[in-house]
Amino acid sequence: MKKIRWGTLIAYIILAIFAIITVFPFIYMILGGLMSFRETTTIPPTIIPKHFEWSNYAKVFAQAPFGRYFLNTFITASVTTVVSLFNALLGAFAMVNLKFKGKGIVQVVLLSLLMVPGEAIIFTNYNTIARMGLLNTYIGLVLPFLTSIFYMYYLQSYFGSISQTIYKAAMIDGASDWEYIWKILVPMSKGGLFTVALLSFISGWNSFLWPLLVTNEDSMRLLNNGLTSFASDAGSETQLQLAAATLTVLPILILNFIFRKQIIRGVVRNDLKG
């Protein structure tokens, strides 16, 4: 019993250490955004500000159009999430439930494309967008991300856990594929669909390289690109840089905190029983 208790204690200590290492940068970023310039540059560093400088956030919005950055990021992340989820849903359903000629070849091709890193085709995508005249547009920002083979394969494995008997029974009852998807498949797969939607939204919110390539106007920048530009413009004002970084990260942290149970449930597939 003593060995078990000591082992458990050591495990908790190790977990606590790693938790502190992981969480501390985010906590310091939030607190640093409320410090004065002197507090952010003192050695040893200040952990808790003497006075919370809420005016730092007002200065951030005054020096850069972060409201526009938020709007652009929300629009692009929302559009890519809705469209890519819809496409992944239909693609996964087709691969699991439908039988058609060349299905195996299609799966092999898609799996091969999944192995190609995005960085390998990013400049090809850029040339395509540039030739279409879509630079500095919302369409140019979202077009390459309106479908995701990874999300389709994730949902395919998720849908594969659902008994084919349910699909066959629905067909016997006269339901169309479209009715089966929306009335049976979607309600039974809410956990997986929610996980895909959340991952897609977070990916869109955190995008950096692609928006950097296809936008060069301040009015079309996304949050991460605007933050990089602001960090250069703000110069040595580290407290404003930390405040701006908090504005960029905080919405995603809140989103993860609120929906953490749904994410876990979607990953372990607790929604599919029997």
UniProtKB/TrEMBL annotation:
Official protein name in the record: Carbohydrate ABC transporter membrane protein 2, CUT1 family
Gene3D superfamilies (alphabetical): MetI-like
InterPro entries: MetI-like (IPR000515), MetI-like_sf (IPR035906)
Topological category with respect to the lipid bilayer: Multi-pass membrane protein
Subcellular localization(s) per the UniProt record: Cell membrane
An annotated GO cellular component: plasma membrane
Keywords: Cell membrane, Membrane, Transmembrane, Transmembrane helix, Transport
Pfam family, one: BPD_transp_1
TM region(s), chain numbering: 9-31, 69-93, 105-123, 135-154, 193-213, 240-259
Signal peptide range: none
Any coiled-coil regions, as ranges: none
Family annotation (PROSITE patterns): ABC_TM1 (PS50928)
UniProt-listed CDD domains: TM_PBP2
Residues annotated as domain ABC transmembrane type-1: 70-259
Keyword GTP-binding on entry: no
